[in-house]
Amino acid sequence: MTSEFVRLEVADGVGTIRLDRPKAMNAISIQVQDELRVAAAEATARADVRAVVVWGGEKVFAAGNDVKEMSTMSYTDMVDRVEALQGAVNAIARIPKPVVAAVNGYALGGGCELALAADLRFAAENAVLGQPEVLLGIIPGAGGTQRLPRLIGPSRAKDLLYSGRFVKAEEALAIGLVDRVVPAADVYTEAVAWAARFATAAPYALRAIKESVDRGLEADLETGLQIERQHFSSVFATEDSRTGMQSFIENGPGKATFEGR
Ligand code: CAA
Fold this sequence. Notes:
Layout: E1 6-11, E2 14-19, H1 30-45, E3 51-55, H2 67-70, H3 75-93, E4 99-103, E5 106-108, H4 110-116, E6 120-124, E7 128-130, H5 144-152, H6 154-163, E8 167-168, H7 169-174, E9 180-182, H8 187-196, H9 203-217, H10 221-234, H11 239-251
Parallel strand pairs: 2-3, 3-4, 4-6, 5-7, 6-9
Antiparallel strand pairs: 1-2, 7-8
This protein binds acetoacetyl-coenzyme A (CAA).
């Protein structure tokens, strides 16, 4: 499939999933959803992608799902489509590598939900986030009612979901919706710098951490600890665990060079 609006750009171990539909403020149409899934699959599969930045360019992250397209859809159209819609965002969430969203401008509705699928979010000083679906008479359908309360707590999430109000970067930082606020010109480079640290890290350890945290958060503590036990034992099967511990014994902490095996 040739992608028109979403592409994966790879440099120095970092893959950037770039949304590029500027005429519609990067609105996430059905085509964009399908292209996001393809980009996520490629970022997952490629060994030269060790961490991922999701970026919508310098002006806007994404103003949500494509309202013009959605307005023509019936209940049964949406019944048929909603799994693929959620699946596009889930595909980003399930990339088994560190993923950061770099948010310039608006991240609204499905755009905010896409940012929520990343492990963390860096925002420009001019970033505006929110879940304004209720103002359209609908609700978030790409994970917003689930990932937002898990991230910022149910009360704050309901305040945003009920009102549909926009949240500026400073408030987003205060409520934990974003993790770092930087000048607009620096968001992407800061996100790439964060991701680049993992280009030489132990990828199967990172993967085991991500799966333990994400799966564990869906479970009770005892089940989460069981998930951790399994992943903890499994990383002892990697060459990187041999290298990492041997390097510590011989040279001290943080000096290992990992092969990613
Ligand atoms: N879908 C389709 N087109 C959109 C869009 C969207 N989500 N957001 C913006 N656009 C289009 C506008 O229609 C406009 O197109 P035209 O030039 O053809 O008229 C163009 O982008 C520029 O938009 P504005 O003129 O509105 O620009 P602005 O700077 O005045 O406002 C904005 C920007 C605040 C982002 C405003 O466009 C806006 O509120 N957009 C909609 C936000 C929204 O409701 N998002 C939720 C969508 S529903 C959803 O995402 C469901 C889900 O959970 C999966």
